[in-house]
Amino acid sequence: MNYVPNTDKDRQEMLTAIGMSSMDDLFAHIPDNVKLGRALNLPHGLSELELSRHVQNLSKKNSNLEEFSSFLGAGSYEHFIPSLVNHMLLRSEFYTAYTPYQPEISQGTLQAIYEFQSLICELTGMEVANASMYDVATALAESASLAGGQTRKNKIVVSSTVHPEYRQVMQTYAEAQGLEIIEVGYSGGVTDLAELAEKVSTDIAAVVIQQPNFFGCIEQVEKIGEIAKQNKALYVTAVDPVSLGVLRPPAAYGADIVVGDAQSFGNPISFGGPHVGFFATTKKLMRKMPGRIVGATVDDNGRRGFVLTLQAREQHIRREKATSNICSNQALAALAATITMVTLGKEGLKEMATQCINKAHYTYEQLTRIKGVTGKFNGPFFQEFVVESEKDIETVNKGLLKEKIFGGFPLEKYYPELKNSSLLCVTEVKTKQQLDDLVNAWEGLA
Amino acid sequence: MYPKELKYSKEHEWMKVDGGKAIMGITHYAQDALGDVVFVELPEEGTSFEANEGIGVIESVKAVSDVYTPVSGEIVAVNEELLDAPELINEDPYGKGWLVEIELSDAGQLDDLMNAEEYEQFLKEEE
Amino acid sequence: MTEPLIFELSKAGRRGTTLPPMDVPEMNLDEMLPPEEIREKPAQFPEVSEVDIVRHFTRLSQLNHGVDTGFYPLGSCTMKYNPKVNEDMARLPGFAHLHPYQQEETVQGALELMYESDKYLSEVTGMNRVTLQPAAGAHGELTGLMIVKKYHTDRGDHKRTKVIVPDSAHGTNPATAAVCGYDTVEVKSNQYGGVDIDALKSAVNDETAALMLTNPNTLGLFDENIEEIAKIVHDAGGLVYYDGANMNAIMGIARPGDMGFDVVHLNLHKTFATPHGGGGPGSGPVGVKDFLVPFLPKPLVELNKEEDKYFLDFDRPKSIGKIKGYYGNFGVVVKAYSYIKGVGGEGLKHASENAVLNANYLMRALSKDYYLPYDQTCMHEFIVTPKPYKDKGVHTLDIAKRLLDFGYHPPTIYFPLIVEEAMMFEPTETESKETLDDFIQCMSAIAKECAEDPEVVTTAPHNTPVGRLDEVTAARKPDLKWEPSN
Predict the structure, then answer these.
(1) What pLDDT sits at residue B35?
(2) Which residues pair with residue C212 across a beta bridge?
(3) Which H/E stretch holds residue C285?
(4) pLDDT tens-digit profile of C309-342?
(5) ipTM above 0.95, yes or no
(6) In this complex, do B61 and A312 lie within 8 Å of one another by their Cβ atoms?
(7) Which class would CATH give A83-340?
(8) Please, what CATH class does the domain formed by A69-80+346-443 belong to?
(9) Does B76 contact A at CB distance below 8 Å?
């Protein structure tokens, strides 16, 4: 494939115009012992037909979520994506544009981001939101950084019921920045409040929880918030955006920073990325918020327009004084989320969330009727739950795989005390038939 | 441009001394370089600083500038008007655009500052 | 011509889509959730029908300018054409609909693609292994510096607290250093735009963790002293980091690994033709030499040669850990993989050669009407300034805005900071001679306006959907979301 329009003839004319005779002349000033001096050891190019065949074959070596019935969640969720999303995303004025630094010809991108920010604020109840982050794990890491800078303290308390990968990312960032992460254990599937109260003191910059948590359980967010407030620590919650169709918004229980992943809206799981983190906070912390922010303003004729604003906080101006180095956001993924959120609309969001929680509960009831399968935690949950199996869970999952079912996520890898426990997720895309098939298949395992 | 009764620092702050206290702000040169000021972050009354410590931040559309205090002392007053009208720094840098008032802990430090003539000379050399 | 906000199009009772009816027994929410956790007031998402949603976003797209609309010579961004076949490949269900926690035997195709991408990118950069985990260039820089940090502390060397950055560097460089807990030391550029060797020599010492550099540099010039520069830093015990933003200048011609760099990051959304998306998602893979491989983020994709199976290797005790959830922006990597496979090794070299030719051709032509601060062969990008029109009151910003009237996206402006009133042009290889000639004519016409009728330039743009926007008020009184009362 060749995307270079110029022919040898064009090149000859251009070389002549600049006083050179061959392409090599362009690189004559590069020292010889730095030059590669050989062809790159890469395969030759292909025609589009060959390329397409090759890549499709590669994709067919994977078992995908359309062919298999999946009960995997753990931070990446299968939700309904309306067809129109992809059609809008393929409008090349959206996807072949760059960062809207020249607002006059980027009003499409800028207004869409303003709408995204508005929707996130509506969803979470917070006062301001940015134009998106790479994902929720990095958004959490950035919120820890913000909290450290804001409170001038260097300890962050994080519940062990926050997704293990998010905690790992926070740990990696914390090490580089001289922050200390202190973990709090869980009890009954939720943050252990007694241990939390013990570990949170006025030395703590922020208290970080996830709602619903990694196990799918509903945390005691009010009480946790009180502990944070009493110690003048910032209250950071990572939320599932779909759950906010039925769960109260974090602003209602005093969150200072709310992050999450809007992948659930309009973005296929895509083997873990690209997803789209969101970051929302209070007016008080607005100028400390990392990432791009779009604001509304007027032009010299009084017409409403949108611009990147509060840029003075960003890397290209602050340079070594910046508090975050983030440059790009996840614009196109945020656009997909925006389009999906407005397509679902007020009623659709509520309906989606209601279906998720009902289908998950139905599945839980049916599964825990199977001999040897018990619910691990007894508390309330949203769309995910943990079951414990008498049988080895890997064997169970192998058996389910034969029935073209992806069973839950075995937890032992991250929680060694939860041997043979598995985290299952049920969203609105699952039919009752699929749920019954799961139960029957599981029951039928010898 | 550079009022004669004020003292000036290399970081483009001015000070108006009155007994044991001084009011400070940024000079015409500094506000011009920054462009339209959009936000000012000021310290809290009662906080103490050492000379040359950063006490706040002035943000414009295209730049952010740290503000340093040329002298040690305690902040006894802060210009609250700037929170709603940061443009005062551009419009009236030596008057309504004042930043803070400091109670000096070491009046001797004032000798390290420049007078108006010296500051203008300093600016010419900077260019 | 403004488009209403989607909220302003909302009418109660309208819906964009419906879901199938509930097919399991439905319970009341308070049977499943503690009553205090139940949402009382639904989120006020707009209520709009599908046709109005589609019209809204279609009209928004029409207010944008993309590479597919026209020439987009944004320096340092490599706005090359985004091949459509790559979009289709990333959307194949066998890639788009994969869960990261599926059993490994069910994702062998995905793992193979990642493994091969690692190999291809290593070969292009002259490094030994590449991680695909970082989500963007700046993220890759952070990852790279974290690797540098761990390398030093692992050796017991805790003295190295400083990172050296040239004064021409992109803002993410010093910002990344700061975020990583380092102090930045700025080193001057010489009159040719390269690193001032003497300044570098006095800047390095046993506190130097690394030097961050790009070559060609942000002026579009290849620093011929690169081997000496790398040696100076290595001799002082520091490492050399390559900002791969300018990789499009040298693919198949030179490699950072051969110049002495220890760690590099790439921007797949620049060099490897994945779309910019209006500001993401991108991907910022990081490549390292052998001695740094143990510190790469985990997991890496490995091949079990006996069983001919790919697997995710989490057993990496010296790894810096994870810098993002899961494995990176896989959907973006698919596009880059497809690009590399499509053009082949020879195509990557062809791209760089033509990118450099286009830049030099454009530079020579523009230098007739504009000031050329560095009059030498450039690489894939170059800088000119409107210095000849300074006394007419014309600034770089004005010329940028005037270009909008002619349907062009402006060049990068006011960067790098070391050139006054910089305009940085990067045409890329996917532009034809005719496109460049038309652009040259346009810039020439603007130059004439600057000389004879500067007001039409200083009050530009005149033909865009909105005029110059009040950025000052936007920053003073931020309006960052729709308010129901609006």
Answers:
(1) 87
(2) C241
(3) none
(4) 999 999 999 999 999 999 999 999 999 999 999 9
(5) yes
(6) yes
(7) alpha beta
(8) alpha beta
(9) no
